[in-house]
Amino acid sequence: MICSTDFSISHGGKNDVTKHVTRKHHQEMARAGTSSQSLVSFCTPQQRAIEAEARWAIFTAKHNIAFLTSDHATKLFCKMFPDSVIAKKFACGRTKTTALAPHFLEKMVKNMSCPFSLLMDESNDKTDKSCIILTRVFDPDLCDVRTRFLDMPVVNIGNARNLFEALKSSLSKQGLDFSKTCIYVGHD
Questions:
Q1: Crossing angle of helices 45-62 and 68-80, rounded to 10°
Q2: Which partner for 41 in 33, 34, 37, 173 could form a disulfide, CB atoms 3.0-4.6 Å apart?
Q3: Helix (H, G, I), strand (E, B) or coil at 134
């Protein structure tokens, strides 16, 4: 809205709009609007790149996108937007994205005060075997049940005792006790 003026078009319709646009107040406000700078113009390209990185990290965490994707996205954005100074300064690989993850983890852990489920799966494709732990928890902001990354401890000997200890340790790092609100543990 250029002049922030409310007016009725109930009698003249399009003619009321045409009259309003020709009035002195509207003309002055239109001129002022074209000479004003937007707030974005006061931010340096580096500040705008930092904002883009934060938005990317939030998007990645919110949609459960693998952190490794961030390494590829950084290069992809430069190729997709070669004329963008922000894309050239954008540097949010997996390390930075992973560093931001604990901030999003705090919110998820807070939601885990209500009943939640845990899902576990081990990988055995490397020397160190990892055990990914996911949680299914109700997110009151989204009014939906979401699957979220919780932890990925190393469990080289994947027997029941070691897996249980890894799960217990991961939960205790977050101040959680699965015996109180965990309603299901899924494991392959």
A1: 130
A2: 37
A3: strand
Rounded to a whole number of angstroms, the distance between the first and last alpha carbons of the chain is 58
Segment holding 106, helix H or strand E: helix 94-111
Which residues make Cβ contacts (< 8 Å) with residue 34, sequence separation at least 6?
none
Q: How many CA atoms lie within 13 A of 101 on its CB side?
A: 20
* Tokens 């249980």 -> residue: 164
| Predicted confidence (pLDDT) per residue in 98-152, tens digit | 777 666 666 667 767 778 888 888 876 666 777 888 888 887 776 778 787 788 8
Characterize the bridge pairing of strands 144-151 and 116-122.
unpaired
Residue-wise pLDDT for 151-188, tens only, equals 888 888 878 888 889 988 988 888 887 777 788 888 87
Contacts of 10 (CB under 8 A, 6+ apart): none
- pTM for this model (two decimals): 0.46
pLDDT in tens, 18-59: 887 788 887 777 776 665 555 445 568 888 888 788 778 878
119 phi, psi to nearest 5 deg: -125, 135
The phi, psi pair for 49, rounded to 5°, reads -70, -40
Tell me the C-alpha distance between 13 and 16, whole Å.
5
